[in-house]
Target: UDP-3-O-acylglucosamine N-acyltransferase
Amino acid sequence: MKRTLREIANLVGGKIIGDEDIEIKGVGGAENASSGDITFALNEEFLKLAQQKAGAVLIVDTLATEDSPNSLVIVDNPRLAFAKVAKLFAFKPYYRPGINKNAYIDENAEIGENVSIHAGVTVEAGAEIGDNVILAHGVYIGHNVSIGENSIIHPNVVIEYDSQIGRRVEIHPNTVIGSEGYGFEPGESGYVKIPQFGNVVIKDDVEIGSNVTIDRAATSSTIVGRGTKIDNLVHIAHNVEIGSDCLIVAQVGIAGSAKIGDRVTLAGKSGVVGHLTVGDNTTLISNSVITNDVPPNSVISGYPAHDHRLERRIKVARKKLPDLLKKVRQLEENIKSLEEKLEKER
Model:
C-alpha cells in the first residue's frame, strides 16, 4: 500500500514543508525508518535522527525548518498523528474473506457480508455476525450473541450466550466475555450458586486485551462503555458498569456492581471494591485499592485509596520512621536516666 504525503497530511490535518507528492510505503521509528517511511519527532535530537533515514517526519511547528533534507508535516500532536497514519499501514490479522470449511455455523445464525471466519470457529443459533467481522481460529460465539460490523475477534476468544458486542470492537486472544458471575450464598449444606441471568454489553470502539474475563450480570447487564480500552489480564465482575473512554490497565480487578464513570483511568494492579461509584475523570494510581465512593476529578492512590498528594507525603514520612524510632528510643533512655538521677537525689 502506498499513500502520497498529501493524503497523509489531509488525514492528520497537517501542513507540508517539502514534496507533497512523495509516496509513503510504511511507518517506522526515528532509529529504524527507511526512505519510504514516515516517522515522528518530538524534539531536535530525534528530528536529526529521523532526517537521516525517513522519507517524511511528523513534527510540531517549533521544529519546522525550510532546509530539511526530507519532507516535514507540521501537526499539533506528532505522536497522535503517527498513530493515525500507522493504522493505514497496519497489518490486518486474519483478514481472509470467506468461511472456512472447518468452521461450524448454525443454520439459525445470521452472517453478514465480507466476513472472515477461520477454521475451528463455532457460531451458535441466534447469533448475528455483522459485516466485515473477523472471527479468528478457535473462536466460540454463543447463542444469541451479536457482533457489530468491522469487529476483530482474535483466536480462542469465548463470547458466551446473549452477549452484545458493538461495532469496531477488537478482542484479543483467550479472553472470555459473558462468563458466570461469582455469586454464592451460604446455605445449610454449603454454598448455593446464584444463577446469573444477565448478559454483557460491549459498546462501540472498545478494545479488550488478552486473557481478560468479563462476567455476565446476575440480572440486567455488565457494561463496558464506548471507546474504553482494557489491557491484558483484567477481571471485571458481574453487574459492573464502566463508562466511556476509560483506560483499564493490566491486572486490574473490579468487583461486582461497581460503577466506573467516564474517562476514568485505573492503573496497573489496582482494584475497586464492589458496589462503589467512581466519578468521571478519576485517576487511580497503580497498586491502589478503592474502598469508598470517589468524587469526580480525583487523583487517588494507596490502600485504602485517598488523595494522591497526601499519600506521597505519607510515603516520604514512612521512610523516616527507622530514624524516628531510634530517636524515640534514645529519648526514652534519656528520660529513664533523668528519672533515676532525680530519684537518687530525693
